[in-house]
Amino acid sequence: MEFPFDALRRWPDVEAPDLVAVDAADRLLLDLSEDARRDAAPGEVVVIGDAYGALSLASAAGGQPVRVHQDSLLGERALAANAKRVGTPGRIASLPLSGELVRDARVVLLRLPRSLDALDDVAGLIAQYAHPEVRVFAGGRIKHMTLAMNDVLRRYFGRLDISAARQKSRVLIAAEPHGGRDPEPKRAQVGDLEVCAFGGVFAGAGLDIGTRFLLDNLSTPTRDSALVVDLACGNGVVAATLARRHPRVRVHASDVSAAAVASARATVAANGVADRVEVIQDVGLSSLPDGVADLIALNPPFHTGAAVHERLAHGLFADAARVLAPGGELWTVWNSHLRYRSALERLVGPTRQVARNAKFTVTVSRSA
Predict the structure, then answer these.
(1) Which of the four, 59, 140, 144, 250, has the lowest number of CB atoms within 10 Å?
(2) By the 8 A CB rule, do 163 and 28 touch?
(3) How much of the chain is helix, strand and coil, in % rounded to 5?
(4) Which pLDDT value is given to residue 1?
(5) pLDDT of residue 40
(6) Is residue 102 located within the same domain as residue 20?
């Protein structure tokens, strides 16, 4: 019986006619790994980077238990929702990117991350802990693949085969692991701040120019006991900066990405403010109650996977509006061509431009 791919949804992630829950790369990965998965013993199949559950659920459809890591919390929730929707006799265990995830695995299905550093972290981990006879099926859309990905895999595997293309997708098949390692964050000094980042985190161990522009213009919280929020915190540079600038404020930082949360925790620890900065993995600010934040800082993402979609930012604006206390402020930096001001006015409150340069706009929106 063929797996019901058409029943899969992206929910609770953004859904739109041009955004899909399963693509040709997923199907090619499953087809090429079919024999290896069938021959694997229970517990020897691992899936990494599954967007919304297609790889994990199809692999578990025959009753096979599957270990899974998804960087995005939205992906985890979509997989859980799709598992209920289609039903699966296998067991799905969602795990962090750690040795436990890939220990003694013989088959790994990997959606290739666009970041070479992220691929390096994953490939090194597999080579360190998986079975010596592991086969890694790493696939993606050809337009997002580069020859440098082959080089990363060859760093940790003695054999690399490349599949024929199908429907603009391709799979790299790696075997003979060697020289593995655990993921470690990269570290860099940015001014007086030490910034840490695991592979795949936006801006890496640095300060992107949009966030720098926001920090250059960000206002001071009005109360010593204020709760300030770094929403979509990435590597945690905003949270660490706010905590160092204002020693009496409390800082809450959140991101949907597990790698971002690990990076932000490493950044705040490296800068001696971990006792005053709470960093959690969250979809928006769902863990915070209404009306508690004095100030929220946001550099909103506008990509979902490889696609650009404005609804990502709009959802964060609405969440910020809910969490802001009366008179609280949302400080936002955005690429000027995105024209977010009308959405901020509608979703948060009166909005004024604070600064603008050739690329970015900084606004402050005040909660009623």
Answers:
(1) 144
(2) yes
(3) 35, 30, 40
(4) 58
(5) 96
(6) yes
Backbone angles phi, psi at 185, to 5 degrees: -70, 145
Question: How far apart (Å, rounded) are the C-alpha atoms in residues 141 and 112?
Answer: 9
Nearest to 117 by CA among 187, 174, 56: 187
- Give the position of tokens 């955004």: 19
Cite the beta strand spans of the chain per DSSP E: 45-48, 66-69, 92-94, 107-111, 135-141, 157-162, 169-177, 186-190, 193-197, 227-231, 250-255, 277-281, 293-298, 303-304, 307-308, 324-335, 351-356, 360-366
The residue behind tokens 């209920």 is 84
Q: Which residues of the chain have pLDDT under 50?
A: 306-309
What is the C-alpha R_g of the chain? 21
Spell 131-140 as b/e; 16+ CB within 10 A means b: beebbbbbbb
Looking at the 3D structure of the chain, how many domains does it have? Answer: 2
Q: How many helices (H) and strands (E) does the chain have?
A: 12, 18
pLDDT at position 83, please?
94
Which of 142, 177, 212 is the endpoint of a domain?
Answer: 177
d(CA 266, CA 100): 21
CA angle (229, 233, 236) in 5-degree steps:
100
Tell me, what's the pLDDT at 302? 67
Among residues 177, 199, 218, the one where a domain terminates is 177
Q: What is the pLDDT of residue 2?
A: 85
Between CA 16 and CA 22, with CA 47 as vertex, the angle to 5 degrees is 25
Give the CA-trace dihedral at 147, 59, 168, 175, to 10 degrees: 30
Q: Show the tokens assigned to 308.
A: 């650009």
Residues 6+ apart with CB under 8 A from 74: 12, 13, 256, 283
Global pTM value: 0.94
309 shares a domain with 173 = no
Find the CATH number of the domain harbouring 161: 3.40.50.150
The β-bridge partners of 111 are 139
Q: CA-CA distance, 238 to 243, in Å (whole number)?
A: 9
Beta strands 135-141; 169-177: pairing state = antiparallel
